[in-house]
């Protein structure tokens, strides 16, 4: 480990066996994230969204060899990593330079763009979720296993203007790097909490929120329900859907029409369809 020539107080790591890199790899494990209270955020867009949400990384690891001088990756505008790095320096974030081989060892995505940040744990408690105004909209996911689905639902929630996302009995955590990646950083933009199903239902009741649960066990179409007012839209796990506790607590159970041979949709797709029905109704008022 030596000093980086371009910034004398910034470290450079070239060995993939360096202890700091081993610590980074450890943050891929949920237990380590819970013990340290930290997680990883990789990528220009994701780190930029975190900064915009008021998150201050403890350390950022960079490989300028992977930066795109044009701010593009193929046809995609990815922004200028140098500008983001300057912003991090201005905020006095520790910067550690990595060789390409060292960076590729700790990167968890295909086509890395040379930026990985270590940030504090993501997510808030149910008690910290604000339920303001008459039109609060929550997305509730129960028992969702795949980080990619949780991340995709966060992206949809952000786009739809959802006020909060609650993971009930989650199999993974909000700080899972693949949740952060799949969310494109919107995990920092939407208030997100984890809880048991019982805790989530008590929070819904205490805040006078109507609960709409998606399930094939109903004749009521998702378009035939009023989504104005305080509403929580709930989806169940990939394998089993919503459990009996959630279904019994529902104000309405709704189904999405299926015209093909498959009898179910991807859970993130189901959430998006019903959320945007709520958006349509609210916009039409």
UniProtKB/TrEMBL annotation:
Residues 18-117 form the MRM3-like substrate binding domain. GO terms for biological process: methylation; RNA processing. The keyword Methyltransferase applies. The keyword Methyltransferase applies. One of its GO terms (molecular function) is RNA binding. Residues 137-276 form the tRNA/rRNA methyltransferase SpoU type domain. Keywords: Methyltransferase, Transferase. Belongs to the class IV-like SAM-binding methyltransferase superfamily. RNA methyltransferase TrmH family. This is rRNA methyltransferase. It comes from Terrabacter aerolatus.
